[in-house]
Amino acid sequence: MQAWQVHQNGEPAEAMRLQEVDRPTPGDGQVLLTVRAANINFPDALLCRGQYQVRPPLPFTPGVEICGETEDGRRVIANPVLPYGGFAEYAVADAAALLPAPEALDDAEAAALHIGYQTGWFGLHRRARLEAGETLLVHAAAGGVGSAAVQLGKAAGTTVIGVVGGADKVAVARELGCDVVIDRRAEDVIGAVKEATGGRGADVIYDPVGGDAYTQSTKVVAFEGRIVVVGFASGTIPSAALNHALVKNYAILGLHWGLYNTKNPKLVQHCHEQLTELATRGAIKPLVSERVPLSGAAAAVQRVADGVTTGRIAVVPALENGAAA
Length: 325
Prior knowledge:
Elements (H helix, E strand, L loop, with lengths): L1 E5 L5 H4 E5 L9 E10 L2 H8 L16 E4 L5 E4 L11 E5 L4 E2 L6 H5 L3 H13 L7 E5 L4 H12 L3 E6 L2 H10 L3 E4 L5 H8 L5 E6 L4 H9 E9 L12 H7 L2 E4 L5 H4 L1 H16 L7 E5 L4 H9 L6 E4 L10
Parallel strand pairs: 8-9, 8-11, 9-10, 11-12, 12-13, 14-15
Antiparallel strand pairs: 1-2, 3-4, 3-6, 3-15, 4-5, 5-7
Helix pairs in contact: 2-12, 4-5, 4-11, 7-8
């Protein structure tokens, strides 16, 4: 089969090589899946660079989220077990962790439903206890993680403020349903948020960026607000000033979604049921901005790493042969 492999850590465009390799053999409790679509996540870039918290042995195939097909024809969502990741024609996954792909979504959309939307659901509902009528601020609102949070926030009945970088991303954020969109490259984020909220600030802030975005969050969070820290796409991990949290009465909440797979897997299943219901009634729909063939995976991962994409890019092996995704 064909698979992208990383033999030496580095930038995705340089580190990933498309090769002909043996089809992987599943271990105990694992299944072999035909990859129908693999969604590109920022952690795929970090894996290539050797900067992710999980460091599989070299060589490995990146791709942490797929819509696949079992040998008996079931369409499922899975997180492949590294080193046999999703940027390949076949991947390996734990049988117990397979989730049914919602019928309302095509392969690329289903592949993009899992990590970003699970992270959003756990961050907003489990950690921040988001309530209808509140104001939600989402950093990087046009990106893969941010776009999921925007849709989940709207589905929960909140007013959503999206912060993006660039005019093209402003348009995407508006289409996603943001009530207010702020271009951080052209506007003062702090002033714009305060103006949009009448000086009150945002009740919940969803931050996958870190760095300056986190600093801005501390200045616009409302009384008894909650800042949910889900990642550091900026590359800068901020240090929290706890005296500031005390003075303003706000909470700083961390979320590592992957822990729930071992700490409380039933919650992951419950979340998937909630997401499937939302997708079925059209309340959420993953924004797949691009579908690329397997041969285009490395360049696409590099674009995600460079922060120039919107929504999600899906790698669809069938496109190599001209088939529809």
